Structure formats: structure tokens, C-alpha cells
Amino acid sequence: KKSDSVVNFGRKSAGRLLPAVSTRDNKARRGRSLLLAGSHNYPGAGVLAARAALRMGSGYVILAQPNIAVSSLENPDFLLCDLNDKRWEELKFDAILVGPGFGVNEFTASVIRRLKELQFEKVILDADALTVCAQENLFPLPRTWIVTPHTGELARCLKVTSEDIDQDREHFVKLAQEKFQCVVLLKGHGTLIRRSARTYKILSGNSALAKAGTGDVLAGMITALRAQGLRPARAALLGAYLHGACADLWVAKGRDSLSLMASDVIEILPEVIHRVR
Ligand code: APR
Ligand code: MG
User: Fold this and answer.
1) Which atom of ligand 1 is nearest to the CA of 187?
2) Most buried of 48, 153, 207, 248, CB within 10 angstroms?
3) What pLDDT is attached to residue 151?
4) Which residues of the chain have pLDDT under 70?
5) Across the chain, where does the E strand assignment appear?
6) What pLDDT is stored for residue 175 in this prediction?
7) Residue 240, C-beta contacts closer than 8 angstroms, at least 6 positions apart
8) Which residues fall inside 5 Å of ion ligand 2, going by CB?
9) What is the ipTM of this complex?
10) What domains sit in the chain, N to C, each tagged with a CATH number?
11) Spatial contact of 202 and 161, defined as CB atoms under 8 Å apart
12) Ligand 1: which of 104, 187, 249 to mutate, most ligand atoms within 8 Å of CB?
């Protein structure tokens, strides 16, 4: 049955989904991404996600935190917002990311609850946001949302162990989609993406990505694609494919797999996009 087979997602499929560029483009049309990411303890997570969203084409990127811990002079390419001074709901944005390094706390929970209440469609939840969803039982989520757990995060959400998930990733991504209702992207060797009744396997990526921060980059990329209007499963598929392809190109250029840093993924992304187009 179609619903049980896994569909491969490779370079050709990616080429078809890539946002077209036009002479009439302007920054608003390329989408506004709001990133609730990073914190005093993890300022890097927000910066990585923001830079990745810009490289993925988002016309505006706003990084917002309570007590913003990032300097605007050192980060002139995106906007910063201190959530002590302004409420995130008052900001103008097309897509919103919540989670990477943002903190497991009541504020994160309140944002997710409010986004559900507003029925806001273009939402990506990662990292701390998923831990909060597990703790506060915020599932199911709207069908247009995307969650991007690594194995440990998915284990927490499903109340199983990481070892359980490693035994049968296809089964657990399907189970997760049934419980969460939204698009589920299960990270790791052989990234799987499940939307209603279909699982896709991403045919790019390698263990060079096994370094803290690369997940934050992926979350920023997917947010930028949602902000540009790609449908949820497509944004997840294209983002994950290009992210993996960055690591593949890194290795193909003769750089060692051990040496890749999250910032290198952001730096090599323009060449990867150009090659896929
Ligand atoms: N093969 C292919 N891809 C891999 C591999 C591998 N062996 N290992 C990791 N990756 C990819 C994943 O698919 C994912 O895209 O690297 C990325 C890692 O993402 P995360 O696990 O979310 O790591 P990251 O968030 O960058 O780590 C920082 O934040 O989410 C928390 O718990 C996480 O402590 C961690 C921290
Ligand atoms: Mg992560």
C-alpha cells in the first residue's frame, strides 16, 4: 500500500520545489520569519537559525528573545527584538519558529498555546518547544505545523526510549504523526518526514552533521521556506534535503567529515541551492 511505502526525496524533487526568483521580488514577498530562538544561556542557537533563514531566502528575519542576548552591531543582517519591550504577537511575520535554545519554561508554553488559539498556520516547533509540548501535553497540533525532533526529543514526546525509536524509525515517525497531526521530521541518519499517510526519506546528509548547532540551522531554513509560501510538507522536505546536501558537498570538496561546523552549513548553502536549481 502507498501509505506504507517510503518515498525517496532526492535532488530532482528538490529542484522542483525550490522557490522561483523573479525580477519583481521584494523583501516582503520573500517572507518574514520570526524566530523565537536562543536565550542568555544559548545565544548561538538563535543566531544560527537566523543566518540560515536569511541564506534560505527569507526577506526579513527577526530574532526575538526576552532579555535579548545578541548584539545587533555584530549581527547586522537580521532584526533583533527584546520581548520585554514588545509582545511577539505585535510583530509582523509570515512564519514563526519556536524552540532552539529558547528555554523549557512557561513562556515557551504560553507562546505555543497562543499560536494554537490563533490557529496560526505557519509554525515550526523544534528543540525546547518540543520538550514543552511533551511536558504540557500540547498535542495534537494544527495540521499545517511542522515539528523537527531528533530521536531523543521524539522519545520524550512519545514517552518511549531513544533505543525504541532506533529499532524502527519508520514506525515511530508514523505513530508521531498520528499523535501530533502535523508534519513530523525525524532527524538523524536517514531523515524521515511524515505527513498524513505518507513517509518520505531524505536522500542527502551524512555524519558530518553530527555537531551541535546543525539542527538550529535546519529549523531556520525550514522557517524561511514556510515564510516564502511553501506548503508544510514541501518546506520540510526541501529544507532537509538542502541541509543534508550541504554536508555532502562539504565532504565532496575533500573537507573532512569531522571538521564541519554549523556555520559551515550556512556558508556552503548558497552553492548547494545554486547546484540544485
Ligand atoms: N547522519 C546524518 N545526519 C545527521 C547525523 C548522521 N549521523 N547526525 C546528526 N545529523 C543531522 C540531523 O539529521 C539533524 O539535521 O544533524 C542535525 C542535528 O540536529 P539536532 O540533533 O537537533 O542537534 P542540534 O540542535 O544542532 O544540537 C544542539 O540542541 O536540540 C538540542 O538536544 C539538542 O543538545 C542539542 C542541541
Ligand atoms: Mg536540536
Assistant:
1) 13
2) 48
3) 98
4) 1-3
5) 6-9, 32-36, 60-65, 79-82, 95-98, 123-125, 146-147, 183-186, 192-195, 198-202
6) 98
7) 9, 185, 191, 193, 202, 204, 205, 218, 222
8) 127, 215
9) 0.95
10) 2-276 (3.40.1190.20)
11) no
12) 187
